[in-house]
Design goal:
With about 130 residues, the chain is mainly alpha-helical. The chain is about 75% helix and about 0% strand. The chain is flat, with a radius of gyration of 23 Å.
Length: about 130
């Protein structure tokens, strides 16, 4: 009992020490990087995505990254739902397989919901997600 308490105490001390180290580092890093991101809004980048014009700005490039990531994420979520549905139907009544298939379906639906929520959040704050111009 005493050993367990000492291990818990050491673990909590390590977590506190880690938080004290990570927070200032993250704060300093964000203070140095955020102005660089803000000032790079009008700067052309060198390596565009396929289908992008060659003189694309950082803002437009970020739009293409979101567009590609949302497309790939939605496709993967739909494939996982189909896979879990097949797994559910072919489980043969095995409760472990049924539960695993249900968890996969719920996880895929949550991921798809997050993609849709990100789209509507960006639309709400005024970012043109669907059009060609950001």
């Amino acid at each position: 009992m005493m050993l367990k308490k000492r291990i818990q105490n050491k673990t909590s001390q390590l977590v506190i020490k880690t938080k004290k180290t990570i927070f200032p580092f993250g704060l300093a890093l964000s203070l140095f990087l955020l102005p660089q991101i803000a000032f790079s809004q009008g700067v052309n980048i060198g390596a565009p995505f396929p289908g992008e014009p060659t003189n694309v700005t950082f803002e437009a490039h970020t739009f293409y990254i979101f567009k590609w990531a949302a497309s790939i994420g939605s496709l993967l979520a739909m494939l996982m739902i189909i896979y879990a549905g097949i797994k559910y139907m072919s489980s043969g009544g095995n409760p472990q397989v049924l539960e695993d298939a249900k968890e996969t379906i719920v996880g895929s639906l949550i991921g798809l919901g997050m993609i849709i929520l990100a789209y509507f959040l960006l639309k709400t704050i005024g970012v043109n997600v669907v059009g060609g111009r950001v």
